[in-house]
Amino acid sequence: MDDWRDHAACRHEDPDLFHPIGTSGPTLMQTEEAKAVCRRCPVREPCLRFALDMEQSTGIWGGTSETDRRALRQRAG
Length: 77
Known about the structure:
Structural class: mainly alpha
Helix content: 40-55%
Order of helices and strands: HHH
Distance between the termini: 32 Å
């Protein structure tokens, strides 16, 4: 079975980019930089689905931050 992670745009990026610490200042720029990688990723949807299914509470997954995923879960009910 083909693993979506093999095709992820982040695969060759520094993993720390996708785990910003904090919510202001330089962290906002880091978050946007990570999300920019996600925007060009061919497996963004499976990545986000994985993060939601596994209840990933930290990091950038599928172009979403922790706050973004929390809002998605709340809307889903």
